[in-house]
């Protein structure tokens, strides 16, 4: 009798019995670790846009608004690709989608080395890296969490979300040093190599589903691997059409759009040039962003822990309120050198950077059940559209007014609005999807 490999067992085959508890570390934690390393490697591309604005402005004489437009295209496509990527992972598997996305990121980043016109920046960095990064978006973390974990989902979500901050911590000082001493091209090549280096880890170590290795999800019971879902694009749009008829979707999308506007769109893209406007060296400003990454890891993991224990919508309200207060004070803190009040802002803001992700994913899961990963992909799309709009508007505001002050104040007010929106999300028992919506 021939023994069957669990990874190739069709979904109609008899389910193997779950292995007895042996005291060993569950395979789900190794999958989460591979996901963590993957997101760290891919995070290099997210560290670069804020460092490119001044060098590209000086070399090509492109306006900050033009450069910010390329960044905004990147951010928008990052978000709009995410929900389709979640459905493609259901159809073709996590490994194939993520490995291809990493190669697209690598190709788009290295192609910028030879660009001579601004439309090429939009194509290479905006379109190619945007599409690739969208498939590596937080829907990747949500898919791993939903498939491999039943218990500790909030904690794992926090850890995987923090991986992006860890990548920022690793790459930002290096990339800023390269830009400062060797120009922006070596930095772009470094981003390309970092994304490419992660591909073997994904292909060799990542598994799509616990049933591939004959296991139950961590903290759950064994279930057969579902058959590949056909019609990924149709399913993605069907889920969207059902979700938009529910109030919580608009509240979650609205709050997350403000989240993206006040993090990726504003601080990640424009903090370095804004600090440089006040006389701070680029390396010092980039170092402060890296410190944000340190405390982002702490804050996001803690947020995942809190999400397992406290009501998610109240956590969101607190996070947005605190972020808004910090942004209102930032214009008063920018100076040629780093001083204690600025350090306090960096620590405070860093703890809150993506602490919003675990409770947002938890609310999607509570409201939309098995469709939650795709719904979160659309909510993430709103996050990136918000980021794209503010990345562009902030660049235009800098060109028009000579400073970023008006953008900091407006972003603080938006955070206050997001806090109010989070509080009016109604609680609902988890469902099997959107059928009951």
Automatic annotation (TrEMBL):
<dbReference type="InterPro" id="IPR050327">
    <property type="entry name" value="Proton-linked_MCT"/>
</dbReference>
<feature type="transmembrane region" description="Helical">
    <location>
        <begin position="123"/>
        <end position="142"/>
    </location>
</feature>
<feature type="transmembrane region" description="Helical">
    <location>
        <begin position="249"/>
        <end position="267"/>
    </location>
</feature>
<dbReference type="InterPro" id="IPR011701">
    <property type="entry name" value="MFS"/>
</dbReference>
<keyword id="KW-1133">Transmembrane helix</keyword>
<dbReference type="InterPro" id="IPR020846">
    <property type="entry name" value="MFS_dom"/>
</dbReference>
<feature type="transmembrane region" description="Helical">
    <location>
        <begin position="65"/>
        <end position="85"/>
    </location>
</feature>
<feature type="transmembrane region" description="Helical">
    <location>
        <begin position="154"/>
        <end position="175"/>
    </location>
</feature>
<feature type="transmembrane region" description="Helical">
    <location>
        <begin position="375"/>
        <end position="394"/>
    </location>
</feature>
<feature type="region of interest" description="Disordered">
    <location>
        <begin position="1"/>
        <end position="21"/>
    </location>
</feature>
<feature type="domain" description="Major facilitator superfamily (MFS) profile">
    <location>
        <begin position="30"/>
        <end position="430"/>
    </location>
</feature>
<protein>
    <submittedName>
        <fullName>MFS transporter</fullName>
    </submittedName>
</protein>
<feature type="transmembrane region" description="Helical">
    <location>
        <begin position="342"/>
        <end position="363"/>
    </location>
</feature>
<feature type="transmembrane region" description="Helical">
    <location>
        <begin position="318"/>
        <end position="336"/>
    </location>
</feature>
<feature type="transmembrane region" description="Helical">
    <location>
        <begin position="187"/>
        <end position="206"/>
    </location>
</feature>
<dbReference type="Pfam" id="PF07690">
    <property type="entry name" value="MFS_1"/>
</dbReference>
<keyword id="KW-0472">Membrane</keyword>
<feature type="transmembrane region" description="Helical">
    <location>
        <begin position="287"/>
        <end position="306"/>
    </location>
</feature>
<feature type="compositionally biased region" description="Low complexity">
    <location>
        <begin position="1"/>
        <end position="12"/>
    </location>
</feature>
<keyword id="KW-0812">Transmembrane</keyword>
<dbReference type="InterPro" id="IPR036259">
    <property type="entry name" value="MFS_trans_sf"/>
</dbReference>
<feature type="transmembrane region" description="Helical">
    <location>
        <begin position="406"/>
        <end position="425"/>
    </location>
</feature>
<feature type="transmembrane region" description="Helical">
    <location>
        <begin position="28"/>
        <end position="53"/>
    </location>
</feature>
<feature type="transmembrane region" description="Helical">
    <location>
        <begin position="97"/>
        <end position="117"/>
    </location>
</feature>
């Amino acid at each position: 009798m021939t023994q069957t490999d669990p990874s190739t067992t069709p979904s109609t085959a008899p389910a193997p019995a779950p292995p007895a508890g042996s005291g060993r570390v569950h395979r789900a934690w190794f999958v989460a670790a591979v996901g963590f390393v993957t997101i760290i490697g891919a995070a290099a591309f997210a560290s670069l846009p804020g460092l490119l604005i001044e060098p590209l402005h000086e070399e090509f004489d492109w306006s900050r608004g033009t450069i910010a437009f390329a960044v905004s295209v990147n951010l928008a496509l990052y978000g709009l690709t995410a929900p389709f990527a979640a459905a493609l992972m259901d159809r073709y598997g996590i490994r194939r989608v993520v490995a291809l996305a990493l190669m697209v990121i690598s190709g788009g980043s290295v192609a910028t080395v030879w660009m001579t016109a601004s439309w090429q920046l939009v194509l290479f960095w905006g379109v190619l890296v945007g599409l690739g990064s969208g498939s590596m978006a937080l829907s990747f973390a949500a898919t791993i969490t939903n498939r491999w974990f039943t218990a500790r989902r909030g904690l794992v979500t926090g850890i995987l979300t923090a991986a992006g901050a860890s990548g920022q911590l690793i790459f930002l000082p290096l990339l800023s040093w390269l830009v400062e001493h060797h120009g922006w091209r070596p930095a772009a090549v470094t981003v390309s190599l970092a994304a490419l280096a992660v591909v073997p880890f994904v292909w060799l170590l990542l598994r799509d589903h616990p049933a591939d290795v004959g296991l139950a999800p961590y903290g759950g019971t064994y279930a057969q691997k579902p058959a590949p879902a056909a019609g990924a694009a149709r399913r993605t749009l069907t889920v969207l059409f059902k979700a938009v008829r529910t109030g919580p979707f608009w509240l979650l999308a609205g709050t997350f759009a403000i989240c993206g506007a006040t993090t990726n769109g504003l601080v990640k893209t424009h903090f370095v040039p804004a600090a440089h406007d006040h006389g701070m060296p680029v390396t010092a400003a980039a170092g402060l962003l890296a410190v944000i990454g340190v405390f982002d890891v702490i804050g996001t993991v803690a947020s995942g822990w809190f999400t397992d224990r406290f009501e998610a919508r109240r956590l969101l309200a607190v996070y947005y309120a605190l972020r808004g207060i910090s942004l209102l004070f930032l214009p008063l803190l920018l100076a040629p050198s780093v001083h204690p009040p600025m350090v306090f802002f960096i620590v405070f803001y860093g703890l809150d950077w993506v602490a919003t992700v675990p409770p947002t994913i938890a609310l999607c899961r509570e409201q939309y059940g098995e469709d939650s990963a795709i719904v979160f992909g659309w909510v993430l799309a709103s996050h990136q559209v918000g980021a794209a709009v503010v990345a562009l508007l902030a660049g235009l505001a800098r060109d028009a007014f000579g400073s970023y002050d008006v953008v900091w104040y407006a972003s603080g007010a938006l955070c206050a609005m997001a806090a109010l929106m989070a509080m009016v999300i109604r609680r609902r028992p988890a469902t099997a999807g959107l059928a009951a919506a």
